[in-house]
Amino acid sequence: MSQGPSRFYLTTPIYYATGEPHIGHAYTTFLADTVARYHRQAGLRVLFLTGTDEHGQKIQEEADGRGMTPIELCDEMAARFEEAWGHLDISYDRFIRTTEAEHVAVVQAFLTRLQERGLIYEDEYSGWYCVHEERYWTSKDLTSEGACPECNRPVREIEEKNYFFRMSRFQEDLVRHLEKNPDWILPQSRQNEVLGFLRQPLSDLSISRPRSRLAWGVPLPFDPEHVTYVWVDALINYVTASGAITPEGEGFDDVSGSWWPADLHIIGKDILTTHAVYWPTLLMGAGLPLPRRILAHGWWVAGETKMSKSMGNVVDPLALEEEFGKDAVRWYLIREMPTGHDASYTPERFLARYEELANILGNLASRVISMIVRYRDGAIPPAPGEGLRAQEDEARRRYREAMEALRVHEAMAAAMDFAREANGYVEQRQPWAQAKEEGRETELDETLATLARALAALTALLFPVMPAKMEELSRGLGLDEPPTLDELGELDLRGRRVEKGAGLFPKKPLEAMGPSSS
Ligand code: MSP
């Protein structure tokens, strides 16, 4: 059903159902949405998965603090995420919640499988736990102040009976896999980081908590007095949603007919070890194929420091959505951050990226459509419109190459460069002069047809990142929707009626950025 090159399965992390969606969640999700839309446009069948991570101590404590039950908190937060993604035009196909009965059954089937293969044992655990990261640490992992190395929060000492997964057995296989697949993790620096990590002996992984200390989790199928460690539970969501394993535990020996393996996991760099070490070894243990690629993106920082609630420096570009529109926010986040690296949020850069949209793309669209209305009574002239074909082909080539390599910001830069070239073409051809002088009708037809075609190409290239605005622009060109990259080849715009819109990106003053920027 869904094997072979005609399908593409991609995932975001599932977000903790403890708080509201913020810029970090939004960035990961916009990136995934852009990649999903690109692949759909290329004619692939896509499964785009997102959802919420609903078990574990963090959820339990947040619910306790709010005087709610865990499931009440999760119901509320899952709804909040779905609403936010709907509002921001996230085209996900499946929203998974780890409290769903199907997922709980698949987690149990997965653990049973590991148990049957002799990969689970019981032992005393003593070490440290960070509730915020939901991660176990050893003494030597901790900071010099004895805090969590990832988030700097206090950790708790734990001594208890746990079940362990024999992760150490798969160390060599994982190293071999990384060496054989040098592009398994992007960017390259993250692949190297994981290889570096694997130079130390890999320990076994604690996969359970005693129920007496934490009840909010998936009971172990072979010992109901313990619940599954939340990261193991959470990672398995990717398999659950693929449909590879039935709730009865069938399917481990043949995943064909399901969406597994995933083509791409998109994550933030903070959750690299869980996805690039725990997850593949768990899959090897269960005898399932590994995901084809992992993209670990960077952090949005404010100035030099990571944005986080506890540091009180969270700027919320999502709040700019009301003033500038959702597509401008999507554009800023995707275009500004070199995919895989960190980027710093500043109101000035936001405004600069907005002006790029207004002055280059918005301006081009309104000029071209106005001229077609003024000089040709609103109908796109029946001329070949080949004046920018070479530049368009080059833009498409750069765009495709960058998208395939998941350098999404570069793909968007290629599209915007093409819009700049189209503006240059207007200056060079001077259609207003062609319109005034006798005998230049054919020339003017060609100029306008070329520009209409350039705009249509831009709607195709920019649709994955700005779906609402590009739909609006394509309607302005008399099209029902943006063409796909392949449809562009045979696109016939002759005689289509253009329509002046309200202006795609109205000019905004600096004050629109809010009080912090003035
Ligand atoms: N629940 C786990 C993931 C389990 S996946 C099997 C989790 N959830 S999370 O709610 O903390 O969200 C994680 C995602 O948000 C990560 O990809 C993380 O990198 C991203 N971000 C959170 N803050 C961020 C920034 N300031 N900048 C960019 N992304 C960051 O981890």
Describe this structure in words.
- The protein has helices spanning 23-41, 57-66, 70-87, 101-116, 171-180, 188-197, 230-235, 237-242, 272-286, 321-324, 326-336, 347-376, 389-404, 408-429, 431-436, 441-462, 467-476, 485-488; strands spanning 7-16, 45-53, 94-97, 120-130, 135-137, 156-165, 185-186, 205-206, 208-210, 219-220, 223-228, 264-268, 294-297, 300-302, 305-306, 343-344.
- By secondary structure, it is an alpha/beta fold.
- α16 (441-462) runs antiparallel to α17 (467-476).
- 43% of the residues are buried.
- Residues 13-16, 23-25, 27-28, 53, 234-235, 267-268, 270-271, 299-300, 307 line the site of 5'-O-[(L-methionyl)-sulphamoyl]adenosine.
Residue-averaged pLDDT: 94
The percent of residues in helical segments reads 40-55%
Shape: elongated
CATH class of the largest domain: Alpha Beta
What is the third-level CATH name, the topology of the largest domain?
Answer: Rossmann fold
Weakly predicted, low-confidence segments: none
Give the amount of beta strand, in percent: 15-25%
Bound molecules: 5'-O-[(L-methionyl)-sulphamoyl]adenosine
CATH level-4 homologous superfamily of the largest domain: HUPs
The quaternary organization reads as single chain
Largest sheet: 6 strands, parallel
Number of helices in the DSSP assignment: 18
The termini sit apart by 56 Å
**What is the radius of gyration computed over CA atoms, rounded to a whole number of angstroms?**
26 Å
